[in-house]
């Protein structure tokens, strides 16, 4: 039986170039880097000042169908596609999110690609990297500490403790911290009140970091964060607490994008990492802008399925940053289609054309919703040895009948070589099909109608159930001047509905909106649906059980 090396074993065998040599491929000068060791560096503001007036390259988004236990390989495809473009002589850059520590120790394991389509140093990227997430955590908790200290020192702003929405944060899955009480132990320990934690990647500060155009914009956005209300009902911001300056100081280096490389030494910019199921799911605007000035073609990704990450990329990030994607690559697998067709995850490797036909409904829904944004779509099947020619042929025929170009991807096993067919199809699409990108809804559409539009046009819902208090909250946000904000839907990634158990392409359902909040600094309204939570928990057998360090200091079991 053929044995396969683990992702971390492949990554540890990679021949990496010094980061200055990787940067030189993009004509970046050594003085325009801030090295963090031999193989990673931050891109400086001086570099931006030199390149900012260059014309932009083409931007390509990689997204996927709803994730399944079978795995779709969206990041792997992104990395392999970038490597393939490099092999073809295209000056390209990959732009990714940074992995969160929570999922690394939870269900997912490492998140730097897989097989022979990875970014390295894989261990560093998955564990601490350049400290960006720690800076976000510290800035978040600094604001929380200053808020509670304000209550302790007399509460001159008249903050109503019952209205505080700003929780603590940590980059770990820990369900025990979802609901807590702080300030116990007597007068000297603070003002007792209910509190809780969210995972760092759900913090508004992470969203702000990823949407800020520069340091001053970052500080202005941080100042607009609403943490509570006064007894008179007026919003209280981080600026009111005097926290914005110190928070910006904490994030001064974190705002700089990070440069690393793939196994084939293709340049990759990694920066920021908001989740797509509870935040907006895209890497930073700054990283994308750097990449567009440095390369002819930029391959980026958005988290989870297109109903979450891609919708937010197209409705929030592109709108805010003035970006126009040239094409979207939609990743699926035969195994995932079978799972969506009702096959148990233990049997998705067995031939079953009828299950593929049933499961194609999920892929069909993603294609149709993406086409509503006016961007050409290329579908790629992440290839497995268990896929049959009949199954592949069926998917290709259906995709082409819907106006999508199609290609197989074998990047997990072959790296860039396995992505040549996809790269060729992508370049053909960009050449032959013009992008007419537009957001799904206009700025001046009422907030409730924006929510309904996403639910109907992207999820395929019949409508929305606004639970008690949510319409009143939307009306108040509009009165406060936030009515033109886009909506950031917090929803399960596993289904087009807000019920993770409903696979395929469900019909006759409504999305339930249970809570609405404004992220005034990020510039969007967060809409909580179903049972989604901002602090995940660990599974019964977390990935952390498999992670270790050997006698030579080599990390094992990360993925």
Structural key phrases:
559 residues, alpha/beta, four-stranded mixed β-sheet, 35% helix
Individual helix count: 19
Query: Would you tell me the overall average pLDDT?
Result: 95
For the termini, the CA-CA separation is 21 Å
Structural class: alpha/beta
Measured by DSSP, the beta-strand proportion falls in 15-25%
Total number of strands: 24
Largest sheet: 12 strands, mixed
Low-confidence stretches: none
Helix content: 25-40%
Radius of gyration: 23 Å
Q: Tell me, what's the shape?
A: globular
Topology at a glance:
Layout: H1 7-12, H2 19-24, E1 33-35, E2 41-43, H3 45-51, E3 58-64, H4 74-87, E4 92-96, H5 101-105, E5 113-114, E6 117-120, H6 122-126, H7 132-152, E7 168-170, E8 180-182, E9 193-195, E10 197-199, H8 204-211, H9 215-223, E11 226-229, E12 235-237, H10 244-250, E13 258-262, E14 267-270, H11 285-294, E15 297-301, H12 306-321, E16 327-332, H13 334-340, H14 353-371, E17 377-382, H15 389-401, E18 405-409, H16 411-414, H17 420-432, H18 447-459, E19 463-466, H19 470-482, E20 487-490, E21 510-519, E22 524-529, E23 548-549, E24 555-556
Parallel strand pairs: 3-15, 3-16, 4-14, 4-15, 7-10, 16-17, 17-18, 19-21, 20-22
Antiparallel strand pairs: 1-2, 2-13, 5-6, 6-13, 8-9, 11-12, 13-14, 21-22, 23-24
């Amino acid at each position: 039986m053929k044995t396969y090396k683990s992702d971390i074993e492949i990554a540890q065998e990679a021949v990496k170039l010094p980061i200055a040599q990787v940067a030189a491929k993009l004509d970046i000068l050594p003085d325009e880097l801030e090295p963090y060791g031999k193989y990673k560096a931050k891109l400086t503001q001086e570099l931006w000042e030199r390149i900012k007036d260059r014309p932009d390259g083409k931007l390509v988004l990689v997204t996927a169908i709803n994730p399944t236990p079978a795995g779709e390989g969206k990041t792997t495809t992104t990395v392999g596609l970038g490597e393939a473009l490099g092999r073809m002589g295209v000056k390209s850059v990959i732009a990714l999110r940074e992995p969160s520590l929570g999922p690394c120790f939870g269900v997912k394991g490492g998140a730097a690609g897989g097989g022979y389509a990875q970014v390295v140093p894989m261990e560093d990227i998955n564990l601490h990297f350049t400290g960006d997430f720690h800076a976000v955590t510290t800035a978040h908790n600094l604001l929380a500490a200053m808020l509670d200290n304000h209550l302790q020192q007399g509460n001159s702003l008249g903050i109503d403790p019952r209205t505080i929405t700003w929780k603590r944060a940590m980059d770990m899955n820990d369900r025990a911290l979802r609901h807590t009480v702080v300030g116990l132990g007597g007068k000297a320990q603070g003002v007792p009140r209910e509190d809780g934690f969210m995972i760092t990647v759900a913090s508004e500060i992470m969203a702000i970091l990823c949407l800020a155009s520069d340091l001053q914009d970052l500080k202005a956005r941080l100042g607009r964060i609403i943490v509570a209300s006064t007894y008179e009902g007026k919003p209280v911001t981080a600026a009111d607490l005097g926290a914005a300056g110190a928070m910006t100081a904490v994030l001064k280096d974190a705002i700089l994008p990070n440069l690393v490389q793939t196994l084939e030494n293709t340049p990759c910019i990694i920066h920021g990492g908001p989740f797509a199921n509870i935040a907006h799911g895209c890497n930073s605007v700054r990283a994308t802008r750097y990449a567009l000035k440095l390369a002819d073609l930029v391959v980026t990704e958005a988290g989870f399925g297109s109903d979450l990450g891609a919708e937010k990329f197209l409705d929030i990030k592109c709108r805010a940053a003035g970006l126009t994607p040239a094409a979207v690559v939609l990743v699926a697998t035969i195994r995932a289609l079978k799972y969506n067709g009702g096959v148990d995850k233990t049997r998705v490797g067995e031939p079953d054309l009828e299950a593929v036909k049933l499961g194609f409904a999920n892929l069909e829904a993603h294609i149709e919703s993406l086409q509503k944004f006016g961007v050409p779509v290329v579908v790629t099947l992440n290839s497995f040895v268990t896929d049959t020619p009949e199954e592949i042929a069926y998917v290709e025929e259906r995709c082409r009948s819907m106006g999508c170009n199609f290609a197989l991807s074998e990047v997990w096993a072959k790296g860039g070589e396995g992505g040549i067919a996809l790269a060729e199809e992508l370049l053909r699409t960009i050449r032959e099909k013009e992008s007419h990108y537009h957001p799904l809804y206009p700025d001046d559409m009422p907030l409730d109608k924006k929510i309904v539009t996403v639910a109907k046009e992207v999820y395929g819902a019949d409508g929305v159930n606004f639970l008690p208090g949510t319409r009143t909250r939307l009306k108040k946000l509009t009165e406060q001047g936030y009515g033109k904000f886009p909506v950031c839907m917090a929803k399960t990634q596993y289904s087009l509905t807000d019920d993770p158990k409903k696979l395929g392409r469900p019909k006759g359902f409504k999305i339930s909106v249970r809570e609405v909040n404004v992220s005034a600094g990020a510039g969007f309204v967060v809409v909580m649906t179903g049972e989604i939570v901002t602090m995940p928990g660990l599974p019964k057998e977390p990935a952390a059980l498999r992670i270790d360090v050997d006698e030579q200091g080599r990390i094992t079991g990360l993925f």
